[in-house]
Amino acid sequence: MRPLKQIPAEIPARIDTVMTDIDDTLTSNGQIPAAAFSAMERLQAAGVRVIPVTGRPAGWCDHIARMWPVDGIVGENGAFFFHYRRKAHKMIRRYRESAAVRRQNRERLSVLAREILAAVPGTAIAADQAYRETDLAIDYREDVPPLTLLEAEKIVQLFVAAGARAKISSIHVNGWFGNYDKLSMARILLQEVFALDLDEHKNRVVFAGDSPNDIPMFKFFPQSVGVANIREFGDQLSTPPTWVTQRPGGYGFAELAETILRGKKPA
Length: 267
Description:
Layout: E1 2-3, H1 10-14, E2 17-20, H2 34-45, E3 49-52, H3 58-67, E4 73-75, E5 80-85, E6 90-95, H4 99-119, E7 124-125, E8 136-139, H5 149-161, E9 165-168, E10 172-176, H6 182-194, H7 198-201, E11 205-209, H8 215-220, E12 224-226, E13 243-244, H9 249-264
Parallel strand pairs: 1-13, 2-3, 2-11, 11-12, 12-13
Antiparallel strand pairs: 4-5, 5-6, 7-8, 8-10, 9-10
Helix pairs in contact: 2-9
């Protein structure tokens, strides 16, 4: 990971889309600092798309798509995207699985939840689970005393043994049944909403993240950025981001935004 301050000036100048994780990337200590929210507004005002790509639930994503300065959102680790057409007052909701499959998978996850809580003491069902449509979030660091990454890995193993996919974020372990992830749904969002082929467009996109569940995005995007707290995960990052900010969390995101905006100013 190279310091973001060393990024060549021509790279920020061509960026037209910022994709970003939310928890511990836009947030600091569980809250979004004014600097990060302002950064999203400033990026939009400069013509740069802002698209959160998160493990957070559908209920939150509906709110974010409507009320934040964003151009769409990928939620529940790639299960769907939401895009709010402000002038038409219309929400576009695009899911990877049918309603019937989502209902069946929720029943399977409900059984698995009980097994995981019994097997890994100290964990809990995430507080936002009631607002989820497709996955199960196990809290290991948000509203419970922090557990170790080894314990988070044990949760992953339990998901995988049941035939589910799983990812570790900075606060939750998310598991789901279905062959999708953040990157595959980001690809669909850009194609269906903005008529952009991500393979052709990826050099104009920056992705910002902070944890191992962002690895597919770090691997795909040449201009990937980790906020400073990503260093906590060390060897958990089989593919680290290209660049790293000086500051953590939302302040690191604001640093990234400032770098992009400065690159777009006339010399």
